[in-house]
Design a protein that fits this description.
Number of helices: 6
Structural class: alpha/beta
Helix content: 40-55%
Distance between the termini: 22 Å
Strand content: 15-25%
């Protein structure tokens, strides 16, 4: 599938496993961006991902601190996408719980010397359901995502790549 996408001029890929990054790089995908959607705090896995040139997901201060340590040890700066939680409830800086605190935590992560924030993303939790309450919830998630983007931008941390749609949305 990746080869077909590349023929169609796709230059950005997203995966969830180290093995997928390895397979893409081994398959000649050297000049494309590969985002690891799943955050990890495993130092060995992070080392391998950084050496493969993957863009990594940061979804908490802990993720950021561990990744920063690994990147600095390797003498690298990791490109990261910040994952925010606007209502999915699984991973990400929790904007619904305390918006201001989540923004502060994201800015602290962005300030770490081993990290370069290059993207911002979230996932919609009920975009595949057309019930009026779920359409409204998806709209609320989107509005919160946009508000977070503007808060980061106002603080001088505008992400280059912003993505929030899943297949259903």
């Amino acid at each position: 599938m990746a080869a077909i996408c590349r023929e169609a001029s796709v230059t950005h890929f997203a995966v969830t496993e180290l093995s997928e990054v390895s397979r893409l790089r081994a398959g000649g995908f050297q000049d494309c961006d590969i985002l690891m959607l799943r955050p990890t705090a495993d130092a060995d896995e992070l080392t391998q991902l950084l050496n493969l040139g993957a863009i990594l997901t940061v979804s908490s201060q802990n993720d950021a601190a561990v990744l920063n340590g690994v990147a600095e040890k390797l003498g690298m700066q990791a490109q990261v996408h910040i994952k925010i939680d606007t209502g999915m409830g699984r991973i990400g800086f929790a904007l619904r719980t305390d918006f201001d605190a989540a923004i502060r935590e994201m800015l602290e992560a962005c300030a770490l010397p081993g990290l370069e924030m290059t993207g911002l993303f979230q996932h919609f939790s009920v975009a595949d359901d057309t019930a009026p309450e779920n359409v409204a919830y998806t709209a609320e998630q989107h509005a919160l995502f946009v508000k977070a983007f503007h808060a980061l931008k106002a603080a001088g941390r505008e992400p280059a790549l912003v993505h929030c749609d899943n297949s259903a949305s």
